[in-house]
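User: My collaborator sent over this chain with a note saying "see what the structure looks like." That's all I know about it. Can you take a look?
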Amino acid sequence: MFENMDNKDLENYAEKIIAGSQLSDDDIRSLLETGSPDEIEKLHYVARHIRDHFFGNKVFMYSFVYFSTHCKNKCAFCYYRNSNEIERYRLDPEDIRKICQVIKTEGVHMVDLTMGEDPHFHNKPERLAEIVRIVKEEVGKPIMVSPGVVDDDTLELLKENGANFLALYQETYDMELYRQLRVDQSFEGRINSRNHAKKMGYCVEDGILAEVEPDTESMLISLRGLATSNPDMVRVMTFLPQQGTPLEGKEVKGCDSELKIISILRLMYPEKLIPASLDLEGIDGMVHRLNAGANVVTSIISSNSSLEGVVNYDREHAERDRDVRSVVARLKTMGMEPAQQSEFEKLLGR
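Assistant: Without extra context I'll predict from the sequence alone. Here is the result:
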């Protein structure tokens, strides 16, 4: 698609996207199927040009607090599925308050409160609301909640107590694959939850998995499906086989397809927030994802924290290198910098 283009041609193509031109299905197929390193680098170049038009060299940073690793679900891809015999934890309110006292000194733009679908909180939504209220009181910044699927009343309660953003990933919009991944979970229920949150005034995030889709058409369905809830943030993460799950033995080629898809997302959804997660390849992987067109650093965990991540590539690592100071230092080497808090607040209000 970009094979014979020079930088000027690529910039002209990016400007067309900025002006409202959209990728066709055939364009997306072509980009998904290309294995040419030269063409992929040109795709990244176009994606960076589009991102820089809308966001300049500014990056947003989210602190990550996985406060309960208990879950009632049996997702085929997740380490924390209910039948996996692993050590789990559930933080109490005072644990979270202590964590927040560190977070508020670190300069992040938002706190991401994540848990499995833990019955301790799902059956008593007021407990979840208390967590949100504590974080708002201690940190005073926007809060993303990632509680899984909760009912509309719970969404209302969380918003009343300070939640601003809902993260709820579909993982795939291929119905057959969804049934294999999110076992016994409603496809429409996840969509309806995001849609209701959007109507309530939440910003919402949706996401898909790479390296688990069976073919190009399946990924195309998912890329188009991300528009369903008109999300404010769209993400792709590479599926990594997790011990004790049905997909433990699945072969994965690596994160190259994720980088390609980040760039495609930037072309398809030019003004959206797109994350570069630290949870897959750490700070070196962050660089690759930002160079592919992402503009948000997620899964930041304080260097002295024992909290887990969702994928936890670094579960066995002594040094995690996922703290704010390390992120900012690396951003500077890339000519990028954290956005001002006011810039993020303005973005939330758009």
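A starting point for your reply to your collaborator: The first helix runs from residue 7 to 18.
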